[in-house]
Amino acid sequence: MIKSWYNTIAAQLSGMIEVSDEKIIQYSNGEVNRTTFDTENDLKTGTIIDPVIFGDLVRENMSKISSEGINKLGHIALPIAAVNIQYMRGRKPVLVKELGMKLPELEDIVYGRTYIPADADCSRAISVSEYMKVSNSKKEDYLTGGEAVSKMMERKQVPKEIKDAAVIHYIPVMPICMRYFWCDPEKRYLGSSLNNRYESLLARINRYKRLEKINCPEVIMLNERRELQGYVDMLISNGSHSYPAVNSYTCQPDDSLEELFATITELSKKNPPILKSTTDILAFISKAEEIHQYNESLNDETYALDSPEMQKLDAMEEELKEILRPFLEMYLEENHKIYLEFVDSVFQYAVHSVPQAAELMFEHAKENGVGGFHPENEEHMAYYTKCVKDIEQGIANAAALYIKKQLRFAFATK
Question: To 10 degrees, what angle do helices 343-350 and 325-335 make?
Fold first, then answer.
């Protein structure tokens, strides 16, 4: 950990506790509004590597970054009012108590499943289907998402420091020295997976703006607002709500602002987990290859989710996931024994992205000149064994994330 990061503005903002829109704008050097992969002529303006906002990414020892460089922050403007998940399921989950609601009721409003009247009388809340039947002239009389939560906080006279931080319109973009690291053996910079969260949020925001510009139907925009809230959640605290965003190839959960804050404050210090590979490599790769071949046979047509073809694919993917169950059970036995009774919930959460990872495994193998799986070939066996071990590491970390951010939270709020 770089000591110069302690007690900086960036460190405070990464925690997303008592961080208001006003504070984010106060310390921002400029707005980030474009992804790095949609720039023209290699222009970096408005991206997460804009040198005007963050300074130049130059080869140097990160521990010698000046205090000025450590606090070169940017911001992303959100097109909707978003709820800060730290106040709902995170490190300061006070919204449920302040609003006098149950968590499922609050989440129904936050994620657009329920609408409340503009006077914030939750006793007269209506469902989405009921809202869609309301005449267009009356729709403005109902609220959902962050706007509804703001209105409820006003009515309940929630303290200002909570109200200003629980619903936000801006997200801080961390200094470049906290998101890129010089890898000397490879002579290049490696980006933190936190950058994936920023890029994904920016792409989602730009999509929302395009759909809004062409006046998409309300039912589509409702889904877009729900998705946008989810992307904000993952950037602030990946895995606190729903499945975590993961590396498509390894199932390794992406870092979020919460992980950066934990690193800076050394909250993440712990003994490394015990990992023993117990997966039947041959069975896993064989099943993955069977799914890959079946997927190839479906490429020429589009199938409904309840079609026999998709049902067969779903069943095959479940079989693939089950091959990893002994590994996960062993991991919990060795590292999180008190949570063994929740093994099914942890398992479903941790292996959610395994089929996608297995599919990418064959694509990467082809790109690396390995090709299909031939167990009699030692080079092939070594390559695919490493792939499976990477996936095991990813699902172990996803399981730890579930315990830390959802299971323990559920215990605390019983």
Answer: 120
Number of structural domains in the chain: 2
**The tokens of 410 are what?**
């559920």
Same domain, 44 and 155: yes
Residues 167 and 51 in one domain: yes
pLDDT value of residue 371? 74
CA distance 191 to 352: 25
Q: Are both 184 and 219 inside the same structural domain?
A: yes
Q: Could you list the residue range(s) of the whole structural domain that residue 238 is in?
A: 3-264
Task: Name the residue type at position 41.
Answer: N
Q: Is 191 helix (H, G, I), strand (E, B) or coil?
A: strand
What is the rounded distance in angstroms from the CA atom of residue 272 to the CA atom of residue 295?
A: 37
Would 275 be classed as within a structural domain?
no
- What is the Cα–Cα distance from 391 to 397, expressed in whole angstroms? 10
Is residue 258 located within the same domain as residue 337? no
pLDDT in tens, 117-166: 999 888 899 999 999 988 888 888 999 999 999 999 999 999 999 999 99
- CB within 8 A of 235, min separation 6: which ones? 171, 197, 198, 200, 201, 256, 257
Check the CA dihedral 397-398-399-401 and report its sign.
Answer: positive
CA distance 159 to 302: 52
The model's pTM is 0.90
The three-state secondary structure class of 68 is: helix
Phi, psi dihedral angles at 127 (to 5 degrees): -80, 170
